[in-house]
Design a protein that fits this description.
The chain is of the alpha+beta class. The protein is built from seven helices and 18 strands. Strands 3-4-14-11-16-8-7-5 form an eight-stranded mixed sheet. α2 crosses α5. The longest helix is centred in the middle third of the chain and has 28 residues.
Length: about 375
């Protein structure tokens, strides 16, 4: 009698989504594989600055298509000088070259808003990696003073901003961050207009929601990791809980994007481009039409890696709710309306709890 064939155990990829770990995606191969992306598209943004609406609309349609089918895309000819991009990478490198004691003066635990410096293994996205994330970072948020279109704010709106923790002895660092933020705010607003057009809305539909947006710039240094190590990784698999992220990366590489079959697709560095990915807010707005795509960074290149994700959200008091044209009697809204501030408070609570656990770990080692 022929032996009975035994089906292999399914293989899964685990990841963090909407702030919680444990979500799974089965790895599919052969006849079971789904149609999905195998590469990340490159979109030329030059047409978005055209005075011709049809030209702008064509760019918007390309972006919407990438958001629906991949959730990731590169943008080139976006209006940010490559000289400034490289200069900002250099600013990050110089900051991380400082001695640990000096950087730890601005540790996130010294900030009620968890802004500032986070050391190597100071975070742990993947609980299966006991050492945590092999990266160090410096995080700061939007400040109205660097906005090229200064907002008119109420006292209540101004009080909502997270307080940054800037190195007191390095005013040039803050000035360089403001210089970069100022240019990125212009691109953020252009991107929101492209998203609006791509969603079939008026081009200025989101303008009032990004007059003083919650943006977060995180400078990251990934020291090389041992490829065979199972105790740490650059950063574990996750989605971003913003509208979208614009990533400036050096030429080392390491970013990987998860497709529908559970396969990791590399986002190889392309000079002069940003890597843009959809976050949870755009997923919510479109009732899951836009993909908030899982990604991770294992830095197994043997080299130092530097990257600067620039996270883009609406104003803190703006409402995030499913757009009416993405609901129907057959498909009701999958998400309840929530302000950016309310959503961040939920996530901030999780972040504080995780930080407290990591703080115990730091003290015990």
């Amino acid at each position: 009698m022929a032996p009975i064939a035994v089906s292999p155990e399914p293989e899964y990829v685990e990841f963090s989504h909407d702030g919680s770990w444990g979500h799974k995606r089965e790895v599919l191969k052969g006849d079971r594989a789904k149609p999905t992306f195998e590469q990340i598209p490159v979109i030329d943004m030059s047409g978005s600055f055209s005075s011709d609406l049809e030209t702008r609309l064509q760019v918007a349609k390309e972006i919407a298509h990438a958001c629906e089918h991949v959730g990731f895309f590169y943008v080139k000819n976006h209006g940010i000088p490559e000289e400034l991009m490289q200069e900002t990478i250099g600013v990050a490198q110089r900051f991380f070259e400082k001695c640990t004691d000096e950087k730890m003066r601005y540790h996130i635990y010294n900030s009620k808003d968890l802004r500032g410096y986070e050391p190597v293994h100071g975070a742990q996205v993947d609980p299966n990696k006991p050492l945590g994330d092999r990266k160090e970072s410096f995080l700061h948020n939007y400040e109205p003073e660097c906005d090229p279109t200064p907002p008119v704010l109420t006292a209540e709106q101004r009080a909502m901003f997270h307080q940054n923790q800037w190195p007191e002895d390095d005013p040039e660092f803050k000035a360089a961050c403001f210089k970069y933020d100022s240019r990125m705010l212009v691109l953020l607003r252009k991107m929101m207009q492209m998203f609006a057009l791509g969603l079939g809305l008026d081009e200025g539909h989101f303008d009032a929601k990004v007059t003083h947006p919650l943006t977060s710039c995180k400078m990251i240094h990934y020291p090389p990791q041992e490829p065979s190590s199972k105790d740490e990784t650059g950063i574990g698999a996750h989605t971003d809980f913003v509208c979208f992220t614009m990533l400036l990366q050096d030429q080392v590489g390491g970013l990987e994007v998860l497709n529908a079959n559970g396969h990791w697709i590399p986002a190889q560095p392309i000079p002069g481009t940003f890597v843009v990915n959809v976050g949870d807010f755009l997923m919510r707005l479109t009732n899951n039409r836009f993909l908030s795509t899982v990604h991770r960074v294992p830095n197994v290149s043997g080299k130092e890696r530097y990257s600067i994700p620039w996270f883009c959200s609406f104003n803190l008091d703006a409402l995030v709710e499913v757009l009416p044209n993405y609901t129907s009697t057959e498909q009701t809204a999958a998400y309840e309306p929530v302000t950016v501030a309310e959503y961040y408070q939920r996530r901030f609570k999780i972040q504080i709890e995780q930080a407290a656990e990591r703080k115990k770990t730091v003290k015990s080692t």
